[in-house]
Amino acid sequence: MSTPLSDRLSQLAPIAFLFALLSVLIILLESSLHQLGVDGRVLHGANMLLFITAGLSSLLLLLQSKKSGGQALLKSIYGGFMIRFFGIALAALIYILLKRKEVNIPGLIGGAIFYVLYWVVEIRSLRKILKSDSGHA
To answer: Where on the phi/psi map is residue 4: left (φ > 0), alpha (ψ -120 to 50), or beta?
Structure first.
């Protein structure tokens, strides 16, 4: 028996917490980041986009985890990766094409670090969900 969807969504709260934490840190450290050459707007954009894509991919996985079989789960994990990866790649490409010579490389590197943070938090949250599902079986 799997856990209800509301319980699963509450286990994804760490993603929302990470979004809030990174947003607050960007605001509080804005002057320090500016001295390092990091554009806070790029970091805010990366944070927002990663939060949205992490939410979409997690929702996809949660909905697919109700189906039986490892193939459905594997499809949703790959689908979530594709959503996140191509969403970020497209956003970076558009940013680079629009800014041309004004591209903020430190901001893009910061966005890549955010990508890894979101990935780690999402995987840890999903492992808890899958572990709780297998415990109820």
So the answer is: beta
